[in-house]
Design goal:
Strand 4 and strand 5 form a beta hairpin. Strands 6-3-2-1-7-8 form a six-stranded antiparallel β-sheet, with no helix packed on it. It is mainly beta. The radius of gyration is 17 Å and the shape is elongated. It is built from no helices and ten strands. The protein has one domain: SH3 type barrels.
Length: 108
């Protein structure tokens, strides 16, 4: 299946406790259908002290299901679906992602 969301994309949370907040995807977990989004779905975890890391309670991002996030439209920042179109012809023909809301190319 084609990659609708990728690492580095700006996304909007569309449901859950962080609804309406935006963040950047820092890791995609395709097999799980989840993504880590910077600053979203923060959880507290106990961490044991090691030689390199300090111990204590730390906050970190937990994975968010892909159905709960949507790409932020490059034009106005509101949630949008992702479509695909082909640009160019012949040898230079390339498949690009497009924001359904505004029609703007996401990665050209």
């Amino acid at each position: 299946m084609a990659a609708r969301l990728k690492k580095g994309d700006k996304v909007v949370v569309i449901t859950g406790r962080d609804k309406g907040r935006t963040g950047e995807i820092i890791e995609m977990r395709r097999t799980e259908g989840r993504a880590l989004v910077r600053g979203i779905n923060m959880v507290k975890r106990h961490q044991r002290q090691t030689a390199t890391a300090e111990g204590g309670i730390i906050s970190k991002e937990a994975p968010v299901h892909l159905s709960n996030i949507a790409l932020a439209d490059p034009r106005d920042g509101k949630p949008t679906r992702v479509g695909f179109k082909f640009v160019g012809s012949g040898e230079e023909r390339k498949k690009v992602r497009v924001a359904k809301r505004s029609g703007v190319e996401i990665d050209g």
